Amino acid sequence: MQKIIKDNHIIEDQWNLIRLTDEGMLPSFGPDEDVIVPLACWLDAPERWKNRTGKTGIWLSPSDEPEQLAPFLKECPVIAVDFPGFTDGRGYSLARLLRERYSYDGEIRAVGELWEDVIQALWRVGFNAFEVRQGKSIESCLKVLSISAERYQSDFRQPVPLFQRYIDRC
Asked: Model confidence over 57-100: pLDDT tens digits?
């Protein structure tokens, strides 16, 4: 079983992220298996996914619109956001929208091309789970999350900018 970082702990991952085959088909998986499926597959047949024995999460590609997912957020235990390339930062906005505009309080998992130097920035916009890329040290990525620093800008975790926090203390 693969390990992930979730809520600042390394845990065994119970979820199977399902990607379409080269032919555009879903690979087979068991009815009791907990799976994360592409948004397009979920939208094609939401009742099919809701009525499974296993749990079903949804993953978003960078070009997906989170408002399509809005009606289903209450019943979605995990949302994965795919980072297909190191330079594609659209997933940051997806997480922030899910947290702030749609008030999603479940697991938001970053998957794909993740490196140590982006983990803390992802956490700041609302991700709380990270599937670390094969060949990268999950322990090193966890250490990055423990680095605490005062930040000037506001973010999901600290909505009040530093200057305002300073003024409020005076």
From this structure: 999 999 999 999 999 999 899 999 999 877 788 899 999 999 99
CA–CA dist 142, 144 (Å, integer): 5
Structure tokens at 86: 């190191």
Please tell me the predicted confidence (pLDDT) of residue 149. Answer: 64
Tell me which residue of 59, 107, 57 sits closest to 83, measured CA to CA.
Answer: 59
pTM: 0.86
- The yes/no answer on whether domain 3-169 falls in CATH 3.30.70 is no
Tokens representing residue 133 in the block:
């890329």
Q: Return phi, psi of residue 57, to 5°.
A: -110, 175
Q: Where are the domains of the chain?
A: 3-169
Q: Beta strand pairing status for 107-112 and 129-130?
A: parallel
| CB atoms inside a 10 Å sphere around CB 43 | 14
CA distances, 142 to each of 9, 46, 117, 121 (Å): 7, 35, 11, 13
Instruction: Tell me the pairing of strands 16-17 and 9-12.
Output: unpaired
